[in-house]
């Protein structure tokens, strides 16, 4: 058996939260994750924080990628993090955020438990590498 076959498949949920209707970036990262060998679930548009938490818990994902461009990251992302905590899924889920997040807002998201934030122009290779290196062991 090759090393590649021995490596487990990383399960990812790519989620769009709130009223943000711009999903091109979410589709791009979902495809890149799939092409990298990850199992990918896409939430679809306009999901509430609770919808995303429920999907992450029910699908037992290793990685939750939140795509948000609406500017509501400072309220919606912490709600998702709190929801994961309520299900004791916080420790078992790597949470990354993609979108336009001002530098002044990033520290609050990191303090809430977000592992990394990827803005416009982030390299797909860098994002995939980060996930591979940081996804929780199961």
UniProtKB/TrEMBL annotation:
Domain B12-binding, first and last residues per copy: 9-138
SUPFAM superfamilies, alphabetized: Cobalamin (vitamin B12)-binding domain (SSF52242)
Family: Belongs to the methylamine corrinoid protein family.
The keyword Isomerase is assigned to this record: yes
Keyword Isomerase: yes
Alphabetized Pfam families for the sequence: B12-binding (PF02310)
InterPro entries: Acid_CoA_mut_C, Cobalamin-bd, Cobalamin-bd_sf
Coiled coil spans: none
Protein name, entry field: Cobalamin B12-binding domain-containing protein
Top-rank taxon, per record: Archaea
Molecular function, one GO term: isomerase activity
Cofactor(s) essential for the protein: adenosylcob(III)alamin
Record keywords: Cobalamin, Cobalt, Isomerase, Metal-binding
């Amino acid at each position: 058996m090759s090393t590649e076959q021995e490596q487990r498949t990383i399960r990812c949920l790519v989620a769009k939260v709130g009223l943000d209707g711009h999903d091109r970036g979410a589709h791009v990262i979902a495809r890149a994750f799939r092409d990298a060998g990850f199992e990918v679930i896409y939430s679809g548009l306009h999901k509430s924080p609770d919808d995303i938490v429920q999907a992450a818990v029910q699908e037992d994902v290793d990685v939750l990628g939140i795509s948000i461009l609406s500017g509501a990251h400072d309220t919606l992302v912490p709600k998702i993090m709190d929801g994961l905590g309520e299900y004791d899924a916080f420790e078992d889920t790597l949470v990354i955020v993609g979108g336009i997040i001002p530098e002044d807002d990033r520290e609050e998201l990191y303090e809430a438990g977000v592992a990394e934030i990827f803005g416009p122009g982030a390299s797909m290779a860098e994002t995939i590498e980060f996930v591979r290196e940081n996804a929780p062991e199961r």
